[in-house]
Design a protein that fits this description.
By secondary structure, this protein is an alpha/beta fold. It is 30% helix and 23% strand. It has an eight-stranded mixed β-sheet, sandwiched between helices. Strand 29 and strand 30 form a beta hairpin. It starts with a helix and ends with a helix. The structure holds adenosine-5'-monophosphate-propyl ester.
């Protein structure tokens, strides 16, 4: 582990001068059944990236079995239920081993084989992590879908990767809500012919309909299965999982991560960024508040902490239930030392005032983390002062679903921090800024589009079933470079500050949503002729969704229409994508070639109408005045 700033600089230098030797040393710390023959083979034209070539191993042996001699009775997870007076659960590494193996054997008995895709649509309970690891144990590819997505969004993801089995629950608790998860799955499966079996973990006892040919109750089969399951031998470049994420065009794409590089990189970054004491006698406890349905949950709830042998909290609920002090209460209750959350949660908890923080000591905390969106300076200072009591370094970790692990971040207590700056690249990561034409912008105190010029082990390998899309989205804008889609500033000290997306992707409460996806959901409403969606600054969510919608002048009351449009978006994507503002318009600003001028729509939504640029070349310049006048 890197423990001084000087050492970081040395390691960084080594990692750039000889990346293969650098990663070789790190990868050797894991248990491999067969060593790799070549460390790296790559080109960004394909793209074709392979790490630890021909290495054979299983990630679960590294995440679980490897720790058993010393840590069998150590906590892997403490689960805090949604209900504040509910019973918590402690899962030791031995328990984790047994549960994962039992489920793995159950999946085998349901005819799941290496390479088969398994969809996991579950709330935040330990079984969701068991499910991911059970798939990995037998070489099945997991595709976790966030349990807040609608049945049609779930169906699209299941169809895209032809999942054979779905793992789910009867219901989910989120704050005061009791969500009938199984009903959503039933609806989705009406259009998913590939699914042979559904395994349902009974969690809420919500009544469910059973399809006797297809449905299996988890508790009826898993406890009886053997707790020994030999791990499938996997190649470094075998697929570990698919995770769907939004892009600037079309429907969500399945980002593919492979076993070897993902293992090495998530563990390395977890250890170095968070700097936990991982000795057997250590009381350090990690808590990442993300959902397992997102990449943060994959890399820093499931794989990273387990690979490193850490103890973590899994929380089922929401930060504001039963009140806005819940996070702080849980930190005191379990003496959490390392806390990793999203700026949107920090802003929401800041907004309700310090009365919810004051009852708690928070003196166990050593390190704070932030992820998912830019953290504004005010939220950073509030977090630093009121939660970290000015003694906990804040690691602002920049990364993406596609990057698999953290790429730019401070190392807690080791490298400098600066409010609202992700700061410096991890060893092995070679960022660069480019201008619109793809020319490198060198030197400091500059701003441009953020690219990465050299592969790192946990980078995206392909988009499932459509390699060309992977090439187009990430490797074609600036040939020879991985393009992140983010804008970025590099300050006088070479620290990086991510300024936000420069493409048509919005970041709503840290959730990535494509404008095209929301538009196509809105357009399914019968009265909608056309729509255009943009993000706008939102105090709590970071960005809100602003929709401009054309409807024929004869249609119904606009308030009713707005409600119906929101219902449509809920149905097609899920509540996370519902527009915050819907402005009904008679037209959209388009160029003569029919392209929507989003720049104008963005400015109006932001409330900045002072400089809309030259609108005279538009097909109908008058429409801009109408839009400005009608701004919500
Ligand atoms: O715009 C960046 C923003 O979130 C995007 C990636 O979203 P997703 O794939 O859902 O992964 C989120 C969790 C890793 C990025 O392109 N983003 C993420 N972390 C930060 C950030 N923006 C600024 N600062 C961050 N720390």
């Amino acid at each position: 582990m890197i423990t001084t700033f000087e050492q970081y600089k040395e390691e960084y230098k080594k990692s750039v001068e000889n990346p293969e030797a650098f990663w070789d040393t790190i990868a050797k710390q894991f248990t491999w059944k067969q060593p790799w023959t070549k460390t790296l083979d790559w080109n960004f034209e394909g793209p074709d990236v392979k790490w630890f070539i021909h290495g054979k191993f299983n990630i679960t042996e590294n995440a679980i079995d490897r720790h058993l001699p010393a840590k069998a009775n150590q906590t892997a997870f403490i689960w805090e239920p949604n209900a504040v007076d509910g019973t918590n659960r402690v899962i030791t590494y031995q328990n984790l081993h047994d549960e994962v193996c039992k489920l793995a054997n159950t999946l085998k008995s349901l005819n799941v084989k290496k390479g088969d895709r398994v969809c996991i649509y579950m709330p935040m309970i330990p079984e969701a992590v068991f499910a991911m690891l059970a798939c990995a144990r037998i070489g099945a590819v997991h595709s976790v879908v966030f349990a807040g997505f609608s049945s049609s969004a779930l169906a699209g993801r299941i169809q895209d990767s032809d999942c054979k089995v779905v793992l789910t629950t009867d219901g989910a608790y989120r704050g005061v809500k009791d969500i009938p998860i199984k009903t959503v799955v039933d609806e989705a499966l009406e259009t998913c012919a590939s699914v042979e079996k559904v395994v349902i973990y009974k969690h809420t006892n919500t009544p469910i309909t059973i399809n006797s040919e297809r449905d299996v109750i988890w508790q009826d089969v898993v406890p009886q299965a053997s707790s020994i399951c030999e791990a499938e031998l996997m190649d470094s470049e075998d697929i570990l999982f698919i995770l769907y994420t939004s892009g600037s065009t079309g429907k969500p794409k399945g980002v593919v991560h492979t076993c070897g590089g993902y293992m090495v990189y998530t563990c390395y970054t977890f250890q170095n960024v968070f700097q936990m004491n991982l000795n057997t006698t250590s009381k350090d406890l990690f808590w990442c508040t993300a959902d397992v349905g997102w990449i943060t949950g994959h890399s820093y709830i499931a794989y990273g902490p387990l690979l490193a042998g850490a103890s973590s909290v899994i929380f089922e609920g929401v930060p504001t239930f039963p009140d806005a002090g819940r996070f702080w209460k849980v930190i005191d209750k379990y003496q959490v030392t390392h806390f990793y959350t999203a700026p949107t949660a920090i802003r929401a908890l800041e907004a309700v005032g310090l009365d919810f923080v004051k009852p708690y000591k928070l003196d166990s905390l050593k390190v704070l983390g932030s992820v998912g969106e830019p953290i504004n300076e005010e939220a950073w200072q509030w977090y630093h002062k009121n939660i970290g009591k000015e003694k906990c370094p804040i690691v602002d970790t920049w990364w993406q679903t596609e990057t698999g692990g953290i790429l730019i971040s401070a190392l807690a207590g080791v490298t400098p921090t600066k409010p609202s700056f992700a700061t410096l690249p991890m060893p092995g990561v070679q960022p660069l800024l480019v201008d619109e034409k793809g020319n490198e912008i060198s030197g400091n105190n500059v701003e441009g589009n953020l690219c990465i010029k050299f592969p790192w082990p946990s980078m995206i390998r392909t988009t499932y079933g459509d390699h060309d899309r992977c090439k187009k989205e990430y490797f074609s804008t600036y040939p020879g470079l991985y393009f992140t889609g983010d804008g970025c500033r590099r300050d006088e000290n070479g620290f990086y500050r991510i300024t936000g997306r420069v493409d048509d992707v919005m970041n709503i409460s840290g959730h990535r949503i494509g404008t095209a996806e929301v538009e196509s959901a809105i357009n399914t409403h019968n009265d909608v002729v056309e729509s255009a969606v943009v993000g706008y600054p939102h105090d709590i969510k970071g960005q809100g969704i602003y929709a401009y919608v054309i409807v024929p002048s004869t249609t119904k009351d606009h308030d009713i229409l707005r409600k119906e449009i929101i219902a449509e978006v809920n149905k097609i994507i899920g509540p996370i994508a519902k527009p915050d503002k819907i402005q009904i318009v008679s037209g959209l600003p388009k160029t003569r070639s029919g392209k929507i001028m989003r720049r104008i729509l963005r400015k109006v939504a932001e409330g900045d109408v002072s400089n809309l640029g030259d609108t005279s070349t538009l097909l109908d310049p008058g429409i801009v005045d109408e839009i400005v006048k009608g701004k919500l």
